[in-house]
Input
Amino acid sequence: MEHFSDRLAEAVIAKRSVVCVGIDPDLARMPPELVRAHRERASAEGDERAVAACFEEFSRGVIAAVADVAVAIKPQAAFFEQYGAPGWAALRAVVDCAHEHDLAVILDVKRGDIAATGAAYARAIFGGAAGFAGAAPGLGADAATVSPYLGDDSLTPFTDRCTDGKGVFVLTRTSNPGAALLQERESNGRALYLHVADLVARLGATHVGAHGYSDVGAVAGATAPEALRAVRAVLPNAWLLVPGYGVQGAGPAALAGISAGDAEGYVVNASRSIIFAWQQNGEEYRVAAARAAGEMRDELRGAS
Amino acid sequence: MEHFSDRLAEAVIAKRSVVCVGIDPDLARMPPELVRAHRERASAEGDERAVAACFEEFSRGVIAAVADVAVAIKPQAAFFEQYGAPGWAALRAVVDCAHEHDLAVILDVKRGDIAATGAAYARAIFGGAAGFAGAAPGLGADAATVSPYLGDDSLTPFTDRCTDGKGVFVLTRTSNPGAALLQERESNGRALYLHVADLVARLGATHVGAHGYSDVGAVAGATAPEALRAVRAVLPNAWLLVPGYGVQGAGPAALAGISAGDAEGYVVNASRSIIFAWQQNGEEYRVAAARAAGEMRDELRGAS
Output
């Protein structure tokens, strides 16, 4: 089975891009033409189904528009889960659509649970649950974000799936204002997030691809560039998933010093600044998303 | 809006029980009569739908069987999510079934995310997402488990819903073997989980019901009784959700000293030892679950 880390490396090299596009659909920010097309369906098919169909069409449009420029997409499960079973079905369709465009899917789910429950979450995300007739497909994602608070036995159910070609990104130093509250607490002279980085290093050591990167990566935000570099120092060969770019405030300078290996070793996520770019200038939403993603790619070339 | 904490207190007082039954369905452990009834449907309706229907029937049976004895049920979302959209629909049906039996539903989802995403998870769990025609119902749970690693801004999207009568249980000191790795790290002379307990106290201070309990509670495992008592010391009026009883190894002695207020102030969860009790002695699964739940209730009376 090909390593997730190698597939991502090859995409970064081929596209000369580290852009990951976050898919965070919000009904209040859907383009008017999609709202018109789907609102009608609400009375006949039910509101959840109509919104889910609207999100699916929007996401498909964005994915096709950014496919040449992005190396991965990162759907935020929460926005789909709001609309129940139809929302979940739309999320699966979004994963399939990204695969049709040969894009890696990093599912942003921030799950974390132990033993049988952790393994069940991994099967929900990656597939493989036992059915009556065969294995269930799950969401079919390539990688997922996971939360480390429960400890190593909450991460291994996910990292065990690296042997199936899957990737894992462990929350390490996140990009939000409240991140410091626990993550920067000092313990034994080091911030908690660095102890988490140690754990990522340990879990990833046995899952390294041909490009030298580990399939077990870390989420480290661009909004705290010192912490981002400190995570890189602990994890010289891990993929970093870097949120906080664009709307959250960080620019290319925040990435200085984090390049590693033959394919940069990181991807930078932007969500709203790309998918809702149409609201900035009134362009058609796919045209606006393609342009915003292209600008981001160019901005990030040589940033690190 | 009535407080979640008051509804739980009144159930504990009325039933003289602190039993919470975990709903963790596993296809390999379904009673043979249910497997026979649902396996047939797999070819016609699809495997995911057939398994989801089997889980739903099983869960309904268990809920009805334990309704007199339990004060809450705790469905583990992972087991349902494995089976895609039909699994999600079955999870919602399980929540509705518990409400028909007047049982509180603590959804074990261990979510945690910030800002708009955190709020979307809360709407997925509690309802309220904007639709074309009105608000989406979400899963309709009464309370949810949340993970604190991202900090206070990952918890407030959930605790903000306490004003709608919802409850939140923050992972504090969990019951798994790996829990100590991060949660017991010392920082400023105290274990990390006690700093999390401080945060729970702060977030809960403005959400206190007539019984004196906060709607913002903590998950603290029975497998680490010293830590459990330390959490209680920091949180004298919070509901504690105590896992680790039964299959995970802890007995009633682990609960000594944690009673607080007029309704004990804690619920103890057991999952497999109740829902799969039929495998121990060959009884019909509902009969076995009712008996196991009743024994647990009796065992726990006066334990604290």
User: Anything to note?
Assistant: Residues 1 and 165 of chain A are 6 Å apart (CA to CA). The longest strand of chain A covers residues 104-111.
